[in-house]
Amino acid sequence: MCGIVGYIGNQEATSILLAGLRELEYRGYDSAGIALLETSSVKTFKAVGKLDNLAAKVGSYRSSGAVAAIGHTRWATHGKPTEANAHPHGLTHSQVVHNGIIENYQNLKSTLSTPFLSQTDSEVIVHLFEKHLDGHGNAPDAALAAFRATLDELHGAYAILLVSELTPGRVFYARKGSPLQIGFAAGGCYLASSDAPLLGLCDKAMHFEDGQWGVATADTLQVFDANGAVVEPLFAVLPASSAAAQKEGFRYFMEKEIYEQPQVLADILTGRLRDGAVEFEAFPADWLRPFRSITLCACGTSYHAALVGSYLLERLARMPVKVEIASEFRYRVPVLDPEGLFVVISQSGETADTLEALKLAKAQGLATLALCNVDNSSMIREAAQSILLRAGIEKGVASTKAFAAQVMTLWLLALHWGQAKGLLDGERWARELAALRGGIDVVKVQPALHERIHRLSKRYLHGHGFFFIGRDLFYPLALEGALKLKEISYLHAEGYPAGEMKHGPIALADAGLFTIALMARTTLWDKIKSNVEELSARDSTIVAITPEDFELADDIIRIRAHVHPMLEFFEMMVVVQLLSMEIAIRLGNDVDMPRNLAKSVTVE
Ligand code: F6R
């Protein structure tokens, strides 16, 4: 969720680092910083906000001679976007930049006596490194051993770059779960968390594997695996353009973001499942307990996530839940429960209607909570409490991974609340926990499934409309599938509760009406089956998304069989996202920038 860069050589380093960070700014931009190790002293610059603020702080400063330098652009997860929380983090002689999450940072921190300056999980790395090096001199081998000892203590995900005044001309690096690559050229050695900053500087790069770590100089590289065995560096040719590099080989950002969903779900769980309970770093364990009811308020895709949340909160936490479309809510003179919690859900945190709804609830004295993907956004600042969605920057206008993150976060919230009320016994909790973890695997795009959807999509480029239908949790998913399709394909699509079709819409059924049936095996299977049979009997063309055989389907997109409804939900979510995208691409549309839409709707 952050971007990191490094440089070792004799060239001027501030401009190299700032140019590299600009290529990564799309990944996070709430603060940034650089550290320049020239001969044997480090100079750091940090600034809150966009990179221009960092460039202004650097001003006319230019490095001279040999330098080892590291830089970071941040997307806050632990601690607010302040200068103190911006990377690099330093202690007496070393500085570190980190991308990822150190899950056990609080335990590690409690073992250290050195003073901490930030609220981040990352700062613990530099403290551990200096502790392990203390008393072992300043030979590069001692520093390498201290770095290894540090890595051995870290749980979680990371890409790390570290420099120390005791070892000039060197950058220590490590990768586990967060990308990191290195390239060499006549000008020196370049490191980055994605290809984009290396383009135009190096022709080839080594993409480190998980568990690899080591040390680099301007023209040498030592690589070790997780067991400490030496690894022979392997370099691959870099892509041709920076836009292509940002998309990392995918045709569109939307496609890349669909493929990123396993990482997003894993990031959401990181550090939140402790001692058999769900914990949120944002608020104390019993904060939710006194609330008597909950109102979820949002727009568009985020509203669909809210609807999913309402089923989960009712079921798992037995809470009375209301779901509101923000643009309707704010003008309705709503009657609010003074003892209720008002929750806004938003990718951007800036959607005008949702923000105004939040202000209205706050003005009426309600406790408020924002679930947002952008830290320091207006909603996060306005709400009493907030939970960051941890989806990373979403570039495609059609929301995909942010929706997955919203649903996952609401599920965790429902579990947290259910536990606080003592509603989840050991067996129930074990079942939920297995499903939470299983979700990460379920949203991994299987190549055969993607290929099948790609091939199938050519049959669905015409007709007079699509009906996505589902029941229970799969009804909001039907709404979301229809929204995805219409916003990027410009074809008419509606989401409907399957049981409602016979109350009117079934009049539209003929061979040109495409029914996309979300036929969950875990949830009301017989009911949805008979709803789809009714449509088939009226000649509607049926695409069944299901783990079961269903002979009336014109096409089946088969998902795996699951025991938990949320696993079926997440697998079907990927299917409807890919189906919409493949249809839109075949129609020649730019799925990242669909006509008439904007990523953040800051007007009414
Ligand atoms: C659809 C989509 C929109 C947003 C809506 C709310 O793909 O992205 O429907 O969900 O504009 O935006 P946020 O979540 O930023 O409040």
How is this structure best described in words?
- This protein folds into 3 domains: 3-237, 4-Layer Sandwich (Glutamine Phosphoribosylpyrophosphate, subunit 1, domain 1), CATH 3.60.20; 247-252 and 266-436, Glucose-6-phosphate isomerase like protein, domain 1 (Rossmann fold), CATH 3.40.50.10490; 445-604, Rossmann fold (3-Layer(aba) Sandwich), CATH 3.40.50.10490.
- The protein contains 18 helices and 26 strands.
- An 8-stranded antiparallel β-sheet has the order 3-2-4-1-10-9-11-14, with helices on one face. A 6-stranded antiparallel β-sheet has the order 5-6-7-8-12-13.
- The structure holds fructose -6-phosphate (F6R).
- Residues 299-302, 346-348, 351, 354, 398-399, 483, 487, 600-601 line the site of fructose -6-phosphate.
Q: Identify the overall geometry.
A: globular
Q: How many β-strands, per DSSP?
A: 26
CATH architecture call of the largest domain: 4-Layer Sandwich
Number of helices: 18
> Which strand-content bin applies to the residues?
15-25%
Residue stretches low in confidence (pLDDT < 50, at least 5 long) are none
Strand order of the largest sheet: 3-2-4-1-10-9-11-14
- Please bin the fraction of helical residues: 25-40%
From the 3D structure, determine the CATH topology of the largest domain. Glutamine Phosphoribosylpyrophosphate, subunit 1, domain 1
Structural class: alpha/beta
CATH homologous superfamily name of the largest domain?
Aminohydrolase, N-terminal nucleophile (Ntn) domain
Bound molecules: fructose -6-phosphate
Radius of gyration: 25 Å
What is the CATH C-level name of the largest domain?
Answer: Alpha Beta
